[in-house]
Structure formats: C-alpha cells, structure tokens
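HOLO CASE FILE
Compound: iron/sulfur cluster
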Amino acid sequence: MDHLFAPPLDPEGVGPAAVAPYALRKVEASLLARGIEDVVVVDPQNLSRVVGPDTKVLGLTAHDPLGLSPVSTKLTMLFGGGPCWNAVYFEELGQQIRALRRRHRFAVIAGGPGIWQMSYERPPWVDLVYMGEAERDFPRLVQEALRGAFLPPVVQGRPPTLEEIPPIVHPSRMGEVQITRGCPRGCEFCSITPERYRTVPWSQIEQEIRVNQRAGEFNVELITDDVLLYGAQKLRTQHKAVVGLFENLKAAGARQIGFAHISAPAVRESPETVRQMGDIAGWPQSRGMTPVVGLETGSVRIFKKYMPAKAYPFKPLEWPQTILEATEILNDAGIDPCYTMTIGFPDETDEDVQQTIALVQDLIDRGLRAFLFPLPVIPISTSRIRGNPMPQLERLPLKYWDLLGVCWHYDMRMARALLPSLVGRMKSSLARQTIALFVERLTEHVDRVFEEFRQTHGRSADRYRSINLAGAWGTLRSLGWLLWGIVNGRPGGSPAGPRYLTAPTS
Ligand code: SF4
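Model generated. Tokens follow.
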C-alpha cells in the first residue's frame, strides 16, 4: 500500500513538503497572515525529523480519518477486508504522534475535511478538534496554544469574509486553486450546507496560480462545489463571469484545466456556458474530464424531502429530465460526469430506489456517457441528518442491489470503452495488448462480482468480509481470489450474470 498508493512525496526530504493539499496551504497562509511565521508543512513520513523540543503546536489535516466517508463505508460494507486503509494510516499516524509526545511537549490540533468523524469520538492524543473554516478562528487558537493556554476539546470555526482569506504562499497539490467556497443549495445530507457561499475574485485566483507556476505546475485544478456557481447571483449562472474566468485562466498560462464539481440544474440552465468552457479548455479533444456530480435519486418524493433547492431554477418534479438533459450537454462539452447517488434514507422504500433505477436505465438507453456510483447516505455530524443511524447492509432497501448491479455493469462498460484512449499512448504494442487484455478481464470479473451481489441481495459480501486486507496473508489471499476469478470467469464458484445493458456510444 505504501509503495503503490501512498509513496512519500519526497523520500529524501527532511523538511517542508514541496506541495500540499490546498486546504492545508490555506491554513498555513492564515497563520502567516496573523504573524505566526515559524510554520512548516510536512508530510507524515517526515514528521519525526521535523518535530523537536521547540515544537509547540502540531496541526494535522484529515480527509477520512476513521474510514467513514461514503465511498469508504460503501466499500467496507461490501468487501470488508478488515479496517479501512484510511483508518489504518490514521492510526499509524496517531502512534507516531503519541511517541513524539512522550519526548516533547506540544499541543495537537486536528482539522480538515473529514474532521467531523472525530467529533463523534476524539482520540485521546488530540487536544482540540477544529471544525469548519480556518481563517477567522484557527490562528487565534494557535496563539493561545503557543502561550500554553487551555484549549477547548472542540471548536466550530466561524466562516470568514473574502477579505479575511489570504492567498496561499506555497504550492498546492496538482495546481489546486479555489474559485468558490460554500454552496447555497442546502441539501440536508451535505456537510457543505452550513458554509456561507463566496466567489473568489480573479486577482486572488491569479496570485495563487502564479505561486504554483513558480514551482513548475502549469495545470490548474479548480476547487469549487459547483464551477457554475462562479460569480452566480441568487443561484443563477452568470455566463460572462464563468466564460471570463476560463479565458483568464488560459491567458494566465494554464495548460490543462480541471474542476471538481458541477451541478446538473446549472448545466441545464446554461448549455452555452458549458460548451464554451469545454472549447476553451479543450475537453472534447483531451477527454478524461470526469467531475463528481450529484444525481442523488430518481425519486421525486425523496428529492423534495431532503434536497428541494437542488433542482433550482427548475422544479423538483423535473429532476429526472434535468439529469438527462444535463448529461447530454456535458457529454457534448467533452465531460463524462461521475454521478454519485445518496441511497438509504431511513424512510426510503424499494419504490423510491426503483425510480432511481428507471432514471439510470433511461440514461444508459440513451447512450449517454457517465460513471454511476450509488453511495450510502452518511449522517455527517455537520449535516442536518446527523441524527440518522450509520448505514448497514441489512437496512438497505432490497432494490439497492439491483441499482448497484445496473450501475457497476455500466461503469465497467464505460471503463472498457475508455481503454483504447488510455493505452493508446503506450509505445510498446506488447505492453498495450497485455494491459488491454488484463483490464478487459478485470472489468469483466468485477462485473460478475456485482452481478453476484445483485442475485444474492448482498449476501455474497459475507465471503469478502472474511479477508483481512491489513496484512500480508489477507492481501495475498484476496489477490489469489481475484486472479482465480479472472482466469476462471466466475467469482467464488457462482455462475456469471446475464448481459442486459447496452454499451456507451464511444
Ligand atoms: S448541491 Fe451539492 S454541495 Fe450544494 S448543498 Fe447540495 S450536495 Fe452540498
């Protein structure tokens, strides 16, 4: 895992990280702006080389410390495999910090996008769990910790105004630059909802792009909850503001432009804006633009109850039509959305899930390109549904398994359809053919595993849960099963599932 998925950024490094997650760079900038200058950002591998007797405060950012994010929860529910690797890594980091604390006296403050998980259970080696945005309150708490003052166990940071947000001063990972913060749509299950919505002015965006360019990064990854919210007024897309932003990015020397999120109603409202964004960025030629977009549900009843403003400026009743039209517009602009779905609200019925299946099937039958991920709804502690129970396999509607089967079958077809453009750049034809064959067989095998989930209503997951992946024996055993399935063409001895869906058009 260390070598494949989490190699050190700078194995020989003994000090500051060359690049860091954007949010961490913002925290660093907010400390510097308040006169706390002896700040260093390091990756976890270098922690013990940097922490010493002069260290007064150790801050850490966590994305998914206990493995409770929707994707981690879904995969551990289905495949078990022992504790989620995110949680294993966080536990290892905790051991390292505990060992350092035995030698030196410093306060530990934890924050970051996944910090809500620690609001349920604060590890004893963390003095302060800091929730929310950093700029207004975090530097003050660090100043108090530097004076040796008592720190409260949990603090909710107040949202800063635009003037209180300083630009980053050191490079972010992958050229990340924030263009909007917060989202006004107010979905009940979302942790973004409490944040105030703001558009970052171009002067600050340009300043941050220059920081990254000076470090050799000319690609730009836009951080936003909806790229079409840039400059929006009352949730209405401002065509000139968005297209102007993309023109400015190109004029500033951005090579590839990516973004994390876009919303289907804003796409449907402004197809011309999306088309021009694609033309400026060159997505129809480059392909591979796959932002995460919330499809959430095909059930208008669930939609109205948990996310009524999400469809604006259209009506909740039009949600399925909004998704279909938006996908067509996105595809024309060279964008293949990764649609996520929130499944498993306590009052969600098989009829609700059947309506989601119908929407997904409609999208497939029209030959539209999209990746489809039904995820369990998580009661994030900063969302309005925080009182809900954590999802469990046994409590999911039975139709969930049909939805999962339909979606993964199509995802595997999409992956195979993208294969020629992925391996086409490889020089050796032998390597090209070998990788193409392996990916082909692998996707067919994954397809069969999900078909087996569908047929058994998830009971086949018990078999995978018996493997502990957090160790050499479990890893070898799971690889053996995978290879066995690929070679023999069936998972764990069950028959291969039927083929019942059409392929994407290209
Ligand atoms: S539209 Fe997306 S980001 Fe905005 S509140 Fe809803 S789920 Fe959250």
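CASE NOTES: The chain has three domains: 22-156, 171-384, 398-506. Residues 191 and 382 are 5 Å apart (CA to CA).
CLOSED: yes
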